[in-house]
Write a structure and sequence with these properties.
By secondary structure, the chain is of the alpha/beta class. The protein has eight helices and eleven strands. It has two domains: 10-227, Spore Coat Polysaccharide Biosynthesis Protein SpsA, Chain A (Alpha-Beta Complex); 239-279.
Amino acid sequence: MEYLGVDKAVNRKSPIVSVCIPTFQHGKFITKCLDSVLAQRTDFTFEIVIGEDDSTDGTREICIQYADKFPDKIRLFLRDGSKKMMLYGRKSGRLNHLGLYEAARGEFICICDGDDYWIDDNKLQIQFDVLEKNPEASLCITDTLIEGQKVERPQGLPHEFKIFEPKELKKLIYMGHISSWMMRNRMQEMLQSPIIKKPIAMDNVIFNFYKLKGKTIFLPHKTSLYRFNPNGIFRGQKSIANHKNNFRHNWYLFYYLHKDPIQLIRSMGYAAKRFCIEFFK
């Protein structure tokens, strides 16, 4: 259900960028997240599409307050918690995420979970300008600060501007953090794949889908802050279960997305090596 209907000021605009914000039990954080997105300075129109997944800690009430205050910017979807998809025996926010991607109308999409936030008011403009100048690119990634881990930034990122060809990212199933990405809106195509309903992190699905669709650009600007959550539905699994999941995830990515048997063999071999190191050391 779209709060306040579809005749709000924001619905009458044609946004260039859709910012998707899935949120659940983020009462302590959602205000900072929304403020950081509303603070964006752009020379184009963007919409903020919030999916509130039936929280009980005040998140829903905060989102409603913002939707009431900014009907020219915010589209709010209020989810029914009884209709959540089960993954690994737990209720998940998968359908909330998928609903946001389907609702996004912009030519480009950014995603920021409700407990993360942006730290650069020019994030959208910077990434939009880069993607406009590089029409062959499908994804633009920037640097990210990490809160709650020993490392301060995602591992494996370059330290300078770089444009990656798809073949250069074959061995990677993830890069940076999703809060820092901007991608061209090909979500309707991605949503046709059965992998979206499989028990694999959506961040991984999105990255592996987009890295095959064109070049990936990395910008050395820090634009987002990611709050590490050790209790997520996938990190909350026991160690041996996580290793089994890695094998399953590699199979899903092969079968539904990249179709490269050599890449499958390599990724399965790497997963097996990690398993052996942990359990036979």
